[in-house]
């Protein structure tokens, strides 16, 4: 199982992390837990992926405050995932708004709590598994509050922008749509 190795998303937006299963064609159910940095991402929800149609999804949110979400996924009795790569779930996070120019990369790791990393076949026999971690990179967000024409403040909201917004509100400077 693996989340996409690297996802890029602008801050202030949601981040969908698809989790893929490379199946042999005998997998019926599995469980795993994802760990994420709560300073960089906030859990928003989880849905079945396109390769898990008809499966039952049971998220375990008991350790969200520690940045861990558990996933249990089971197909009906006797059914298996098709051989090959399938998106089994899509975990959605909210990313913070980042200012400046630095992107923030945060690990998306498979861990053993709140749910263990397991896969079983249709006869409830354990299967060997390999879980591969991924990374979510949150890019700086362009800020609408950057209104100053001072070149040193481009892309940042700082004291120059505060003063310029005050001048615009007071009618001391004209409001234009031009880029300066």
Plain-language structure description:
Helix content is 6%, strand content 41%. It has 180 residues and is mainly beta. Strands 2, 4, 6, 7, 9, 10 and 11 form a seven-stranded mixed β-sheet that branches. The longest helix is centred in the C-terminal third of the chain and has 11 residues, at 159-169. The protein is elongated and about 75 Å long. The mean pLDDT is 85.
Key terms for this structure?
seven-stranded mixed beta sheet, single chain, 11 strands, four-stranded antiparallel beta sheet, about 180 residues, mainly beta, about 40% strand
The count of helical stretches stands at: 1
H/E element sequence = EEEEEEEEEEEH
Principal-axis shape: elongated
Low-confidence stretches: none
Determine the N-to-C terminus distance. Answer: 49 Å
- Helix proportion of residues, in percent? under 10%
Please summarize what this structure is.
With 180 residues, this protein is mainly β.
